[in-house]
Amino acid sequence: MNFTQIEVIVKNKYEDNITGILYLFDIDGISIIDSRDFEEFIRTKPYWVVLEQEDFVKSDFITIKTFFKNDCDLEENLKFLKEKISSFEKEYNEKVILKIDTKPELGDFLNEWKKYYKPTRIGKNFIIKPTWEKYDLKKDDVLIEIDPGMAFGTGTHETTILCLEALEKIDVEGKDVFDIGCGSGILSVGALKLKAKHVQAVDIDNLAVDATIENAKLNNVFDKITVNLGDLTETLNYKADIIVSNILSHILVRLLSNIKEFIKDGGIFIGSGIIKEKYEEVKDALLENNFEILDYSEKKDWVCVIARRKNA
Description:
Blueprint: E1 3-11, H1 15-22, E2 31-34, H2 35-44, E3 61-69, H3 74-92, E4 97-102, H4 106-111, E5 120-122, E6 126-130, E7 142-146, H5 158-169, E8 176-180, H6 186-193, E9 198-203, H7 206-218, E10 225-229, H8 232-235, E11 240-246, H9 249-259, E12 263-275, H10 279-288, E13 291-299, E14 302-309
Parallel strand pairs: 6-7, 8-9, 8-11, 9-10, 11-12
Antiparallel strand pairs: 1-3, 1-4, 2-3, 5-6, 12-14, 13-14
Helix pairs in contact: 1-3, 5-6, 9-10
């Protein structure tokens, strides 16, 4: 079935009035864009989120969106909607912007983006493949399947690529690995595909935990992974041979004093999420925490570092 998008722009104090009008119709739901939500996010945002002033534009207006079905009642429904909006404008002496836009078939609209995601080779052997695509694996290819429709991306961001390439550079087989800030869990899956003995993945985001679990199941490695929600120091209780962490540089610098306590002497640390301008800060923090730099690589504006924990 085809759908028509309805978009209403009005002062935020009239949110209930307009949503009340829209719910008179046979709709499945409503989305609201409101700068007050962003204000609340700024107030309660996690400490690792850095926002610039230009990220925030305050407005007294909200945008309310929904879809009407393009059935035999559409013309009558649109007429009734315009009448209700007009009545509201007269009653409250307020101007409302009403936009009506015919959309393509919703199923096609929602799935159109899939054609842009194809299997991608990363490093020497990794193949990142969306679940709906077919791919003929070559000898030694290491397949990671993902569903880009989940809360996280496609696994092809520069920092993810750098970390996967770093995992290929070291000996992972038979090792205990920690994935700190696991996100989608792709690095955890990658380590297990390289025959790591076990991976302990941790993140403070529920969505990340869910995504990691789903991707581990999708790649048939769920029996070798433990996924925890919470802080690093609260969830880990032993030391790893390898720690990989793809998080922003200022958080990484802050966590390194804790990270060093959870990695064995001689253990390997892989860190990315580091922009070039911040690499020297990360490098200094690694050296201060008794690591030696083994390898440095970069893609575009991002950096990955491989370091070894010196013997205590």
